[in-house]
């Protein structure tokens, strides 16, 4: 026979369970990893289907847009003699080297401008003007200064990677909570130790966002870089195919640039999750 006390205890337990259920956010279907992957592939699959339809039905002539099968055949042809792998590896190497140099410089200069009023006054105006210079405008100057070797190509990609990191880091450091900085100084942190121990962790999400933008910009600058008397690389494949009227290889080069850009961005995304899990 239940007592009044037992009934009160049961009612309290039910209310606690209801409160816990209400406070726990429900994961929607789109929050699941598998659903997100499938959802991300829907639009590319739809575009591929439309591409197949408009080419096979003759709505778009083959000399303007070859069929997906033709592009695949071009990929198989280039892969069979090793050119596709070689061009992809060379372009990836150039992008990663330029990205590493440009983003490192962007981090240092962004820290100077973001933390120092004098650095802001001296550098921000000039760097803002240089940032507006188009990528192709640097090509003849870099050929004159650095000739047509790898140095000129990597330098141009580094220029492209520099500005996204510089802009995001300098802007984020200007808005770091001053109470957080003061707490770091109370514990004896000064200069570089204060920057690496307090200020950079506070703006870490902005830094990672700047790195992702810089990596995307590096791939954009790659094509301009490989205009500098290049004989290999995806940018060279794109330009050379255009000169020879090989539209299938042109589209293949564009697809490879998109795939490599997405792959490297995904790697930065994995790094972002690990870094944020550790520092935040």
Can I get a quick summary?
The protein has 280 residues and is mainly alpha-helical.
List the defining traits of the structure above.
mainly alpha, 280 residues, 0% strand, 80% helix, globular, 12 helices, single chain
Write the layout of secondary structure elements.
Elements: H1 4-23, H2 33-56, H3 68-80, H4 83-115, H5 117-131, H6 139-146, H7 150-174, H8 178-186, H9 191-202, H10 204-225, H11 234-244, H12 247-279
Helix pairs in contact: 3-12, 4-5, 4-7, 4-10, 4-11, 6-7, 7-10, 8-9, 10-11, 10-12, 11-12
Structural account:
With 280 residues, this protein is an all-alpha fold. The chain is 80% helix and 0% strand. It contains 12 helices and no strands. The chain has helices at 4-23, 33-56, 68-80, 83-115, 117-131, 139-146, 150-174, 178-186, 191-202, 204-225, 234-244, 247-279. The longest helix has 33 residues, at 83-115. The chain is globular. It starts with a helix and ends with a helix.
Gap from first CA to last CA: 53 Å
Q: Classify the beta-strand content into a percent band.
A: under 5%
What does the overall shape look like?
Answer: globular
Report helical residue fraction: over 70%
């Amino acid at each position: 026979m239940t007592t009044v006390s037992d009934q009160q205890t049961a009612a309290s337990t039910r209310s606690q369970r209801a409160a816990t259920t209400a406070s726990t956010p429900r994961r929607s279907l789109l929050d699941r990893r598998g659903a997100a992957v499938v959802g991300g592939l829907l639009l590319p699959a739809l575009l591929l289907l439309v591409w197949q339809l408009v080419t096979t039905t003759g709505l778009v002539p083959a000399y303007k847009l070859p069929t997906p099968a033709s592009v695949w055949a071009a990929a198989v042809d280039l892969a069979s003699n090793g050119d596709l792998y070689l061009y992809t590896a060379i372009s990836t190497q150039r992008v990663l080297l330029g990205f590493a140099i440009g983003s490192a410089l962007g981090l240092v200069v962004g820290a100077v401008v973001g933390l120092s009023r004098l650095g802001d006054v001296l550098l921000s105006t000039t760097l803002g003007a240089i940032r507006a210079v188009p990528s192709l405008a640097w090509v003849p100057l870099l050929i004159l200064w650095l000739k047509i070797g790898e140095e000129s190509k990597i330098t141009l990609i580094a220029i492209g990677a520099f500005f996204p990191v510089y802009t995001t880091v300098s802007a984020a450091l200007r808005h770091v909570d001053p109470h957080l900085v003061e707490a770091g100084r109370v514990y004896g942190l000064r200069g570089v130790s204060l920057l690496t121990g307090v200020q950079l962790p506070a703006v870490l999400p902005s830094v990672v966002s700047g790195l992702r933008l810089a990596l995307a910009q590096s791939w954009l600058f790659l094509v301009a870089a490989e205009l500098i008397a290049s004989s290999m690389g995806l940018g060279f494949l794109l330009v050379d195919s255009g000169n020879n009227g090989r539209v299938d290889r042109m589209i293949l080069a564009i697809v490879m640039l998109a795939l490599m850009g997405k792959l490297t961005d995904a790697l930065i995304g994995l790094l972002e999750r690990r870094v944020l899990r550790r520092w935040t």
